[in-house]
Amino acid sequence: KTFRPRKKFEPGTQRFELYKKAQASLKSGLDLKAVVQLPPGESINDWIAVHVVDFFNRINLIYGTMSEYCTERSCPIMSGGLKYEYRWQDDSKYKKPTKLSAPQYMCMLMDWIEMLINNEDIFPTRIGVPFPKQFQQVCTKILTRLFRVFVHVYIHHFDSIINMGAEAHVNTCYKHFYYFIREFSLVDHRELEPL
Q1: Any binding-site annotation on 152?
Q2: Is 189 labelled a binding residue?
Q3: Which of 46, 80, 104, 117 is the Cys-Cys partner for 84 at CB 3.0 to 4.6 Å?
């Protein structure tokens, strides 16, 4: 229920080309701080859209690989240690911030993000269709909530990640995510305090 199939970019589209550039840069062993910078002449909203979808795919996969260790019993509250608790609010079913277990929160989060990135009014895929005015605000909210997945995984389940031998992958993904959100000031600095 918490694992989603990867969202793909249509071959031949501008976003597919940007995605290929981003992937090629990552695989080339370049400095991740340089890799996240906007390529000359490219649209910032396209660059952000490509990365939001890619981070959704990667973080969903990370959580999916260790979700068997994140149960209602082991994680009755979505948190990042004793100091940070994350409540769910989505303005439809949960109009007020609501305590949820970590698995419930993750399921709600992945459903919510999937709904947003599949919404053509928010993440347009056709050439010439502009992004909405609130696009970067929506992306900030998505990325802030995805950051919370890293917080939970690192603080509560990193031993499981190590046991699976996946710590290098998780660390690289986190580092890429962190440099990206810092490059474009997409997540409030206070949200980053847990890590």
Answers
A1: yes
A2: no
A3: 80
